[in-house]
Structure formats: C-alpha cells, structure tokens
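User: I'm curious whether this sequence folds into something compact or stays loose and floppy. Could you predict its structure so I can see for myself?
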Amino acid sequence: MAQMAEKFLLSRLSRAGFVTLAVIALVAGLFGAPLTASAAAAAAALVFTGSAFHPGRTHNPWPLIHRGLFFVLLVLLLSSLWAGPLSLVHWLYTAPLLAFALLSLTPAVAVTAVCAVLAMVATYWSIGLAERHQMLSPFLLTIMLSSILLFLREYKSRQLAPLRRTDELTQAASREYLSADLHKEIQRSEREGTDMSLIIIGLDTHLSDTDPDADIRAILPRIGRYLHSQLRDFDSYYRVADLQFLIILPGVSTADAATRAEIIRKGLRALLVSHGLELTVSAGIAGLNIGDDADSLQQSAANALRRAQLQGGNRAQSYSTWSHVQASESDIGGPAA
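Assistant: Here's the prediction. I'll summarize afterward.
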C-alpha cells in the first residue's frame, strides 16, 4: 500500500511540475526571454519522459531520451552563466541532484565537478563580490546536500538488500528465498498429509529468433501481474531465471497442477501474442513424492520443463507422466533384449 501511495504521489507531483514548467516556458517566450523559455521547455520534457510521469517510460528508448534531455538542460543552464538572465543561473542548483538521480556515480561526479568549476569561473569574472557569494554559497551547499543524499541512498539500499523479497521488474519473490520457503512447504505438506506441486513456466525463446530481447524484457512486468492474478493468496511464485518462473501450489495434486499449468500457459501465450510477440510458452509440473526435498522437487520440475521444450515447446509436461512412461518402456525393453 505504501509503495502504491508513493507512486501515486510522485505521478501527481510530476504532472503538476510538467504543467508549471510548460506555463513558464510559454510566458517566457511571450515576454521575449528565449533562454528561459528553452530551459523551461527542456525541464518540462525531462519531467514528461520520466518514469514518475508514466510507468512505461522505463523501457527503451525513454531512458536514453531522458538522459539526453538532462544534458540539453545542463547546456542551457551553463550558457546562462555568461549570457544571462541571472535568475536562470540559480536553476543550476538542481544540476547535482538530477545528475546523481539519472546517472551512475562516476558520470554524476564528473558532471557536478564541471558545473562547479564553470560556475565559479563565470561568477568570478562576471558579477560583483556580494552577488558572487550569493550564487556560489548555495550552489556548493547544494552539492554537499546531493552528496549526503547519495550516501543515504546507498546506505539504505545496502541495508535493505537482505530484506528485499521481490524482484522489482516482475514483483515475483526473489530466488534467494525459494529453497527456504519450499522447505517449509514440504514440511507442512508432510506434517498435514496433503499434496503439493510445483510448476515451472518458461518462454520458449530458443525456438524463436524473431523477437528482440528488449521486447521480451519489456513485457516481463505484465507477465508478473498475470501470474499474480492466476494464483491463490497462499500460493507463491518466484523468478528462477531470466525468463522462467516457479510456482508453489500447496494442497494441489500433480493432475490438478497440470490442469492449472495449461490454463496459465495458454493465458501467457495469448498475452504475448496480444503484444506482437510470436513466442510459445512451456510448463513443467512436479508433485511431491516420498523422499523429495527442496532440491529434488525443483530438479523434477525443471526436468519436466526441459522435456517439454525438447519436444518442440508450447506444451505442459508432468514429470511423473513421462518418467513413469520411460520406466515402463525400459522394463518392457529389458527382458525382450
């Protein structure tokens, strides 16, 4: 709920900022201030191309456009150091914050250092002592504030990393927690005498050379939301590989899991086709048997998925089905040989 509220608030703030900057650009253009109008228009475009304005802005080419507009805005602000107006120079206070937010650490430090040097040189030669202090002191304080915020962000990220249970792209649980969670479910199933099954869903990318990786990765959030919508409250799903998901189904037999896997598989296939991706989906199913542990159960489901894809993909395969058939065939073939 807190994450949804944060996204909602950021979206509203970004839209308000976009409208405000667009109005500033229009008014500045009408009053004959082309540099201010250009800077405000670039800032408005920067907000418009951000992920806070629209969730779809996280996919290419939006991130590249977003960074490109930042450098356009930066050039306009730096040019105002010599060309004026003086009020526009104070917009440079946002440069360090934007740099550390949009760029990796090394480019952000380089951009901030260049801005600081140019600001000091320009203010030293172009304005008086009092105005120079009024300009440089807040700018240097902004750089210090940006450094503190960067440190706090990195510290928070490292502190919360062990607690992050979900994959940010698909909202599936992280693979690091799979073995422990699966071990608990196996113990519960054995203690209560109930069934339990696994499903591994995989995209048959090896069968298609027509869909770019970028297009496939762009649809991963929708795949995660679809899987979430198909599961019960006490089911759980994990992203176990780049394009593979594992689902734990407590209290579900292998036959029922196979039925559900087929429904999910066909639904994902329809989702991919609706987005122009001619990809098929396969599924491997394995039920809990006596003597299984977390590793052996995962391996059984993975072997079933591999079997399905070796048979051409676009199908669901239960481990117990083909393994028992193979055992029967070897028993028949043994005496005849």
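Summary: The domain at 175-330 is CATH 3.30.70.270 (Alpha-Beta Plaits). Strands lie at 196-203, 236-241, 244-250, 281-287, 316-318.
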